[in-house]
């Protein structure tokens, strides 16, 4: 099988716009949470979230005009805008912008979303109820469809290879990166732009997850303390938004053009729980099977894993995931393992979560440092695993595994390795 | 320049992101102002909203230039 490496990164997160600014704030233990400002949340049980900081582009703020002309912005939902922005960053970072037709045909796009244009759908439905169907914009459908990030990226850059978009709730970003790497391994493409984007922080999105009893509700007065994986006082996830995109490339292709190589995609594993629409089973053996499959695919012993970026959403399922990881690596390796949940800082970006967390896992390998789990003040788990509580951990990280689990009982694990 | 023309021009500039002086009497939305077929559908909807009129689909198809739009709207009002 052909080897796949990562040659470009792009991030739009609640911590900042941009890879380095986000990473710097993540390592510093900052939180991206705050009272919702994008709309009036006063009718909602949960009135806080991790929103992307908007601004003029300075100090890590997101300036949409830097990525899309204002007249084009009007035609797309925000999740597409975030996806396009992160894709632009990743593509520019990789230096891969082919003008030859043959190269363009070997370059594909696989960017998904968990929910897609929810806010556009909600707004358009309300508008139609008031003014009638003739007022529905011709840009409503192409502005809300999940695969339209992949479509827009291919149109802008002339990428004529495989054009695809996975939808697996909160595992979407991980599935996109894993599936895209397989397309390169199997020879369908030499380069893939892959990842996920989400922008579901709207009244309907928060109300829906509130109804599922999935969101944190107790921190309207102190939102930065709300996302606290493995902590005694956790009470649900905090919704985030943004996008994570990577450029994946066949190893010899990357070497031949002298590309900067961040890491190798070593392994990928998938499984289904066959259990419940929103909850994992008590032992989450499906998660364990996904991780084992990824290790087998990577040709490594699970004990070789140095760092796990947990799904860790700040719910009771955090403990279950930790148990699955402990069983996977065994007691001896568990004592040497570092595992953190960056959702403590970014919130849960749903379909983009697996993608931004893949980027964090890759940066952990690059900089040999694990980002912290913030707000882990009173762990309610007893474990020998280092959960990286409240401070980053500088340590050797040659192999990092990133977990993502989604509603419907879908699990994905991706393993990245250091390139010697 | 009539009031209708000013209001139509404002909509065209806003929706198509073009310079005001490009929006001349004979300027074609598609050939001269960079619109695609979806843009023209949206433009017609914006005209309907702004002027409180209904533009049937067969009439919409005949509105291809700025001048066409001003003429149609002036007579429909």
Tell me what the structure shows.
- The complex is a heterodimer of chains A (420) and B (77).
- With 420 residues, chain A is α/β, with parallel strands linked by helices.
- Chain A has helices spanning 19-27, 70-73, 78-94, 101-105, 118-131, 140-144, 148-157, 172-185, 203-211, 251-256, 285-298, 317-334, 343-346, 353-367, and strands spanning 4-12, 34-35, 48-49, 107-112, 163-164, 191-198, 242-250, 263-272, 307-309, 338-340, 369-370, 393-394, 399-406, 410-417.
- Chain A is globular.
- Chain B is mainly α and 77 residues long.
- Helices cover 57% and strands 0% of the residues of chain B.
- Chain B is built from four helices and no strands.
- Chain B has helices at 3-16, 37-51, 57-60, 66-76.
- Chain B is globular, with a radius of gyration of 11 Å.
- Chain B starts with a helix and ends with a helix.
- The model of chain B has no long low-confidence stretch (mean pLDDT 94).
- Chains A and B meet through loops of A and helix 2 of B.
- Chain B: Pathway: Lipid metabolism; fatty acid biosynthesis; Glycolipid biosynthesis; KDO(2)-lipid A biosynthesis.
- Chain B: Carrier of the growing fatty acid chain in fatty acid biosynthesis.
Biggest beta sheet attributes of chain A:
10 strands, mixed
CATH homologous superfamily assignment of chain B: ACP-like
Number of strands of chain A: 14
> Given the structure, what is the number of helices of chain A?
14
The first-level CATH class of chain B is given as Mainly Alpha
| Mean of all residue-level pLDDT scores of chain B | 94
What general form of chain A does the structure show?
A: globular
Extract low-pLDDT stretches of chain B.
none
Structural class of chain B: mainly alpha
Shape of chain B: globular
